[in-house]
Protein: Methylthioribose kinase
Organism: Pseudoalteromonas gelatinilytica
Amino acid sequence: MANYTAFTAEHAVDYIKKLIENELSSVFAADATLTAYEFGDGNLNLAFRVADQHNNSVILKQALPYARCVGESWPLSLDRARIEAEVLINHGQLCPEHTVAILHHNVELALTVLEDLGDLQILRGAQIKAEQFPLLANHVALYLSRTGFYNSDFYLSAEDKKAKVSQFINPDLCKITEDLFFTDPYIQHERNNFSAELTEHVESIRNNDALKLAAAKLKAKFLSCPQTLLHGDMHSGSIFVDSKTTKMIDPEFGFFGPVGFDIGSFMGNLLLNYCAQNGRIAEQAKRRQYQTHLLTCLQDCYSQFEQHWLNLASSEATDISFANRAFIEDYLQHVLRDAIGYCGAELIRRTIGLAHVADIDGIEDEQARLAVQQQTLVLGEQLMLNATSCNNKDEFFSLLISLLN
């Protein structure tokens, strides 16, 4: 990309000014006075908020040619910006009410201009404060079922599906997931990050052949099972919310992979927050009430996801073989087992791998934080080890409740 340059706030202002007459005329007036600041706190990219004197604003996101959290020693392809933009376009057409709107994309500069969701909250921060969102489960289930089904073999022709798989090949970011989810936590690796007090537990994980087998099977499916166009990074930092709205952002890890990965990642983040509250909310009744809310959200989300998929497959499958009720139910059984496994892997990797979550790391009391970390590791292990024995969602929910009690 010969014309690529990493932006500053001044670059962002100049660039947005050039878009006002056409693509951004509905956001800014022609005589708008623009200012910008960089606020990106993610691991990979620059992010600028560009606003006018009336507080109308957009977000300009630009990929860097390396992982921001590490530096130039970890190079990454700028093509991930194209992939992210095209995932947003695809998902936005299928579920516009729950996908951040893309306003502009420039392949050469690896940048995207998005609607500003600043009037919403990032789900992770809100859940750390134990805030509840009664529509979250419904919205996530609708988003994942629609984007999943309409990008799957249930709906796409074989030709269209293969073309889309090729369009969304994402080797650099998939490699990050493959390593951080399925490899690093189960070996001694410099990227792993955990306190010395967890060493004995970490060693038991590394020596658990059954658990490493489960991780290998999950990795193999992630590598070789292009079932649908995934968001690829469905953690609670990629979701904006308020009491009525839920919007998904940042699908730069998007690619064609197993349906269960996104729903499993989301469930894993609910459980990370569930465990974290044991070290955050001192009052038992208040803590149990909020944790019950999180479990209800998890159960409702998966149940509604499954029901949406069943309804769509029964009425809109384009291949008569896939409209067969017995096949749909068998397919969803495998999706559930995958989701449980990926959920468990998320719990483990967020505890001892490179990328932690503020839900847990922000617990001030060291002993309370350590107890939470021990719980997430045990929960993750048990979910991974028992995933294939769950025949339906009721068995999964019963298993989950038994593990948490």
Remarks:
- The chain is about 50% helix and 10% strand.
- The longest strand covers residues 45-51.
- The CA atoms of residues 98 and 246 lie 6 Å apart.
